[in-house]
Design goal:
This protein is an alpha/beta fold. It has a single domain, classed as 3-Layer(aba) Sandwich (Rossmann fold), CATH 3.40.50. It has six helices and seven strands. The chain has helices spanning 32-43, 88-97, 131-140, 161-165, 171-194, 196-203, and strands at residues 12-17, 54-55, 61-67, 74-80, 105-111, 119-123, 146-151. It has a seven-stranded mixed beta sheet with strand order 2-3-4-1-5-7-6, with helices on both faces. Strand 2 and strand 3 form a beta hairpin. Helix 2 crosses helix 3 (131-140). It is globular, with a radius of gyration of 16 Å. The relative contact order is 0.19. The active site is at 30 (proton acceptor). Catalyzes the release of premature peptidyl moieties from peptidyl-tRNA molecules trapped in stalled 50S ribosomal subunits, and thus maintains levels of free tRNAs and 50S ribosomes. The record marks 110 as: Stabilizes the basic form of H active site to accept a proton. One of its GO terms (cellular component) is cytoplasm.
């Protein structure tokens, strides 16, 4: 698809996959936002040599620019280079650069209070203890952005929540993870193309 490099304005959507950078964290539950962003990047068009992601000039995130479908909305996919509890700054910088208001921002993140394999989409809300959402809300000064919430479930037994989110998926979960990632990417596209109500009807089940 076409690459609207440098495109700014109200027709641009900023879609952010929340996670922690680097190979150490790549397979963790906390990084499902990165996985969904990777899936969306593959859908935006032919993958250039070296991969789809490029460093943004702000120096604090990697981005992919393109369109959803033929002549569809302009989209900037982003993966912040900062750790989860500091993602707000880089995302705010991107939103300012591309002139994206919170109502054109989608954050993809893991959600403890939703069972693994299920999704929820919504607009606004608190952070529910999620460090990435807390940082983002603080930097933007509002929580009124869209969220695509990929369920990871609660830790078993007495396992600490921080240890749980910063650990790899179980072998059984890994067999289903690709399906969840594809569905979450579908939900992002639906949210942008068809709106929240229709997307919730499709995916909030």
């Amino acid at each position: 698809m076409s690459d609207p490099a440098g495109a700014t304005g109200s027709d641009v959507w900023l879609v952010v996959g929340l996670g922690n950078p680097g190979p150490t964290y790549a397979g963790h539950r906390h990084n499902v936002g990165y996985l969904v962003a990777d899936e969306l990047a593959r859908r935006l068009g032919p993958v250039p040599k070296g991969g789809p992601w490029r460093s943004h000039k702000t120096g604090r995130a990697d981005v992919v620019e393109g369109r959803l479908g033929l002549g569809g909305p302009r989209v900037v996919l982003a993966r912040p280079r900062s750790y989860m509890n500091e993602v707000g700054g880089p995302i705010k910088a991107l939103a300012t650069f591309y002139k994206v208001a919170p109502d054109h921002l989608v954050a993809i993140h893991d959600e403890l209070d939703i069972a693994f394999g299920t999704l929820r989409t919504k607009l606004g809300g608190g952070d529910n203890g999620h460090n990435g959402l807390r940082s983002l809300r603080s930097s933007l000064g509002t929580g009124d952005f869209y969220r695509v919430r990929a369920g990871i479930g609660r830790p078993p037994g007495r396992q600490d929540v921080a240890d749980f989110v910063l650990s790899n998926y179980s072998s059984a979960e890994r067999k289903e993870l690709d399906v969840q990632v594809v569905e979450a990417a579908d939900a992002v596209e639906s949210l942008i193309l068809d709106g929240l109500e229709k997307t919730q009807q499709r995916y909030n089940s």
